[in-house]
Amino acid sequence: MTLEPFGARLRRAMDERGPLCVGIDPHASLLAEWGLNDDVAGLERFSRTVVEALAGRVAVLKPQAAFFERFGSRGVAVLEKSVEEARAAGALVVMDAKRGDIGSTMAAYAEAFLHKDAPLFSDALTVSPYLGYGSLSPAVAMARESGAGLFVLALTSNPEGREVQHAVRVEDHAGRNVGATMLAHLAAENAGEEPLGSFGAVVGATLGDLSAYDLDVNGPLLAPGIGAQGATPADLPRVFRGAVRNVVPNVSRGVLRHGPDVVALRDAAERFAQEIRAAVTAV
User: Fold this and answer.
1) Which listed residue (62, 81, 98, 116) is catalytic?
2) Catalytic residue status for 98
C-alpha cells in the first residue's frame, strides 16, 4: 500500500511536533562522550537511546548512514532496526546517505532506501545530483511510487561546495548557477502539490544572504548548520525569508551532546523546537 506523499506527512508532522530534524550521528568522539565503546555494542546503545528519547516527539530523525556502515553488516543491521523503531514511534526518517549515480546503479540505490518493502525503507533520502539532475530519475520515480521523498544537495554549508554549486553553465542563458538550477528542477517536480511537495533541497542555514535564489520550491528545505556549526534558530527568517515555513532545521550535536540521559535529550530537542517555532511564526 502506497503511503500518503512525504510532503503531506512532513507538513503535518512539523505542524504537530515542531519543525525540527535531529541527526543520529554516532561518530567515534560522540560515542566516547557518552561513555560508550567505538564498536557495534556502543553503536546500538547510542542509536536505541536516541530513538527511545526522541522518535515519539520530534518530526524527523536523520541517521547518517556512514556512521553505521563503517561497522559492516552488523552496523547496517543496527541501522535497519533504528529506522524501523523510529518510524513505528511516529518519527519520519530521512536517510542521510547522499547517494548519486546513473542508470541501473541509481535505481538500485533507490530500491535500497525507497522501495516500500526494503529493510532500510526511509521516508526520504538525501541524494547528490552532480552527475546531472536527470541521473536522479530512478529515485524520483521510486519515491513517487512509494510515497517517499528526496532531499537534493543544492546549496550546502561546506565551503568546498561553492566550486560546483556556484558555477554557471555556459549553456544557461539565464545566468543561473548550478545550485539555482537544482532549485528550479525541484520547483518543477513539486508544481501543483498540496500542502507541500515531496522533493526538497539541502540548503545550509549558515550561508547567510540567499536573496539571489528562489527558495520557494513548494517543497521542504533541509537546513543543516543549527547549533554546533554556528547558525541559530533566529537566523532562519533572514536566510530563508518567504520559504522559512518549509524549512526543516537539522540539529545534531546540539541535541546529542546531552546524552545518554533520555530526559536531557528530550529537553534539548524541545528547546530547539520551541526556539525554531518561535522564529518561524514571528515572520
Assistant:
1) 98
2) yes
